[in-house]
Every structure is written in C-alpha cells, then in structure tokens.
Amino acid sequence: MSNFLKNSTLGRKLGPKGLYITLGACLIALGGAGVAAYNKTVSDINDSLVIEQPEGEQQADNKKTDVEKEESSLGDVSSSQADNSSDNALDIQTQPNVMPVNGEILNPFSNGELVKDETLGVWKTHDGVDIKADVGTQVKAMNKGKVTKVWEDALWGNCITIDHGSGVIGHYYSLSKAMNVTEGDEVNAGEVIGSVGDTAECEAAELSHLHFGLKKNGEWIDPIEFIKGSSSK
Q: Which of 2, 69, 164, 207 has fewest C-beta within 10 Å?
C-alpha cells in the first residue's frame, strides 16, 4: 500500500513526510474502529448475562418473621446454675441450727487469743469449743449440708467436715471410729453423723467432750454465738 501511495498523484504532492503522516492517520482510524467494535461486542455479551435480582422490598418479604427463636441451651444452663447458687446461699436459713451435742462448755472459743493447753502445756489459740459429753453420745449435724471429708487425725482423732453452705464449714473432732456418714453424703440439721469418741490426743487431759469448730469464709468464728444468733432470728 505504501508503494501505491508513493506513485500516486497524492503521494507526489504530499512528499515522503506527508505520506507517512497520512499512513499513520489511516492506521489510527482503523485501530479506533476495532476498539469500538470490541466494546460493542463486550456490551452485548454483558447484556445477555444480566441476572435478575429481587428488589429490596422483595428481599425483605423473603425473610421469615414468623419462626420462633429457640432459646440457647447455654441460657438454660445459666438459669439452672443461678437457681442452684440461690439454693446454696439459703442453706443456713432453710433449717434451724442445732447444737451437735448438749452439755457444758469446757473450753470456749478464744477468738484468736492465746490460752493454755493443759494437755500439751503450751499457749495457743482455741479455734472451736469443747462441749462436755460422754463417750458414745450421738453427734448431730448443726445444719443441712454436704460431708466433704471424713478422716483420722493424729492429734484430733476421728474427724468429720461438713459444708453447710453460705461459706460456713463445720468441723466435728474427737469422734468415735464408727461414723454414720461418708464423704459426699447430704445431711439435714440434727441428723446423727457419729458419736463422741474422746479420741483427740491433743486434748486428752480434758473430760470427755466433742471439739466443735466453725469457719465462715475461711475464718474461725464462735460456734455458740453463730448457733444462738441464727436461732434467734
């Protein structure tokens, strides 16, 4: 095509430089026509692939609003746990407190003060009360609760610990070897858990008795005051 233009009358009038400018313009025109044709083809294809989508109102109508929501099982558990914790918090109040045994108080609660231990000959705190009772006297649970420990101690003899709830733990020491409960048992106020055994070697110089102590939230408290105070409410 370039030879044809050179030999034509137009080629001779334009000269070599004008000839190349004209040739370039022709190529650009052809290229533009090709791009236009490509764009039209792509547009036609896109039009044929349009997927109909529901409008906003239609989409809203497709949502189900009449389906009842299922309550979470975790929520049910939480509710159950809350009820259980509420029951535990009322353990002390649901039944009247009772004295484990009835008798003279040989040694009272010292409330952190040092007292002379007649058996060991030393000064130490007395963290419970010693209630006079003959060997074999039935020992009762002060209130309802769960037996958390049953064991034999070298100094305190045969022992039982009961969780009475609300942070109150009962300690029943110097019992006989024959126990009426085992660890994990649930007991009620006044239920017999064992009997006085006079087995506490650290208090052997005293008359036969039950050593009874109470802890509330990890601190020793006066068992007699607690029982009398709770009973008077």
A: 69
> In this structure, what DSSP letter does residue 38 have?
H
Handedness of CA 180, 183, 184, 190 (dihedral sign): positive
What is the distance between the alpha carbons of residues 32 and 94, in angstroms, rounded to a whole number? 95
- Quote the CA–CA distance of 173 and 196 in Å, as a whole number: 9
Q: What is the pLDDT of residues 28-70, one digit of tens each?
A: 455 555 445 545 544 554 454 444 444 444 443 444 444 443 3
Helix (H, G, I), strand (E, B) or coil at 135: coil
Name the token pair of 48.
Answer: 């044929």
Please give the backbone phi and psi of residue 204, each rounded to the nearest 5 degrees, phi first: -70, -25
Question: Which pLDDT tens digit goes with each residue over 2-29?
Answer: 454 445 544 454 455 554 555 554 444 5
Given a contact cutoff of 8 angstroms between Cβ atoms, the answer to whether 103 and 209 are in contact is yes
Whole-angstrom distance between the N-terminal and C-terminal Cα of the chain? Answer: 120
Length of the chain: 233
Rounded distance, CA 57 to CA 91, Å?
58
Retrieve residue 180's tokens. 């009426």
Helix (H, G, I), strand (E, B) or coil at 195: strand
Beta strands in the chain (DSSP E): 105-107, 114-117, 122-125, 129-132, 138-140, 145-153, 157-165, 168-175, 186-187, 192-195, 209-216, 219-221
Closest by CA to 227, choosing from 109, 99, 89, is 99
Look at 165 and 32; give whichever has higher pLDDT: 165
